[in-house]
Write the structure tokens for this entry.
Amino acid sequence: MVDKEVPLIKAKKTLQKDVILDRRGFFVIEVHEKEIRVEYYSNIYKDDRIVSGNLEKVFSGAKADALSDTIVQHVLDLRAEHYTYLGRELQKAQYALEQNKKYVQGGC
Amino acid sequence: MFSFTKKQEIFDISGIEIGGQPGRYPTVLFGGVFFKGEPDFERTRRHLQKMLTLSKKTGNPVIPDFFIRKDEYIEEIITFIEKTLPKNHPFSIDIIEPSIKIKTLEYLHKKNLLPRTIYNSIHIGITDEEREALKKYTPEMAIIVAFNPKDKSPDGKVEVLENGAHLLDIGLLELSKKLGIEKILVDTAALAPGENSGASIAALPVIKEEYGLPVGCAIHNVVEKSKWLNDFESARKIVDSSSNINIPVFGGNYAIFGPIENADMVLPIIAWQDILVSEYTENYFGISPVEFHPRRKLLQ
Amino acid sequence: MENEYYPWGGEFTVCSPNGCVAVVLLTIKYTPPDNVAIYGPLKTENIGVEKIVANVISNPYIRYLIICGDDIRGHRSGTSLVALYKNGIDQQHKIIQALGAIPYIENLKEKAIERFRNQVEIVNLIGIKDNDKIDEIINEYTARSPPCFGEPYIAIRIKTTANVNLDDKRALHSKIVVNYMGKVKKRGK
């Protein structure tokens, strides 16, 4: 007799082909000498395709947590997966900055 | 004109009390001597006399702040302190070079002057040798400078007091406790124009509410570095002296007002400001000033 | 005026402020000599190209843009940049005769692109990876000592803004609340 049953869910990365791009825009993350820069672009569509972006805001910082919190305050209504993607990438960028290694922005 | 919810500490240094809610105690004034060239003892003795006389008149306690720039001055300055200051009157020693700090502490201990000493200052540049010396030759009171070069806002100042802000292994407040110094004055680090000098004033009520400790700063430093005042030479002394009113208005307890020569202006200006603050805080918050407060001494 | 140079971000290394040569690195292992003005990699045919244009026109001393290395697969960013220089953009903001997937220029005005096309001459070394050869060509163009093109053209300015955003406009600082009488309390209590 079991009091409670809870599902154990195995983690699985969404396949590239199934990823839904965020209609609210995209980010470009760059690691410079002493800081991390995050550019937020709103999407530009031509014939229903995203062809580029309009540079809306630029964020600057050295820590993933500070950048994450600030971006959440300044860029609203993104898809949930987009915020978690940013969290992962910013942490990678922070390590790259601290260890003086190259940072290459990952795909979603 | 503020009243703080947090309980406020009042520290006694050899008869002078510093701290508390605005309006209770008069602002304590530190006048600096010997910061340029050879110490001129005769001149300083006269200025010291003047400052002490003014202090009796207005009620604002004064503390001479002795710069010690070179090893060879230590003995003569301390002898001067022993001979010239009134009996048991406190004083502060203002030294930049750590090795001179250490030698001075040792000498003060020898002369049994540590119970009257305010150590100016403890900050993120403190060396290990300095820490050891302070443990052995502990001054009665110390000024902690909440200077955070990475964040000059009040947040940065609180950080460096609280946890060292990644510039020091522990927070400056904890460090003082470890060194055995209980009586702490927080200096909110006013440095130069363009370095967010307004933050050193805004930080006064923030730190008083956060920690309840006596606060103040040397806003005079900002005036001294304001090169544009060279165009207004005749107004310089007034600007310098009156810049200090920012401190009592924002709840501060002491001001390091710069050269002792300015005491003739600083004392009356600060006494006037203290009276203004006291009238308000007694009226709205019921804070009664002590009997030697300017409001009691100067108003009939 | 030097601190106005290269207003848009990107991955690049700044060398000599009065250098007349800028180097764009496609797929190549090469570090240009430090008498060039600036050098860096190019990845995308849209924003990557735009950043190069905006940064180059901010420094009027740059008169030659050398593109070297193998072109980026799929993006064809190198040839897109050359096409922009040769042909400009169409009504849809698409680079004319660029082979990349999405070679659209959306953040720069026509004027900026014109300025780019007039200010620099592109030296097309796409496909060339020989470090010594590129060094030689850089030195040759540097020796030409062309005049400065004029004033910096600033297409984008990234301005710092105050970060604190409090709804209590009478606050002295985010850690405390001061009521109308002057009573101070910790914020959040």
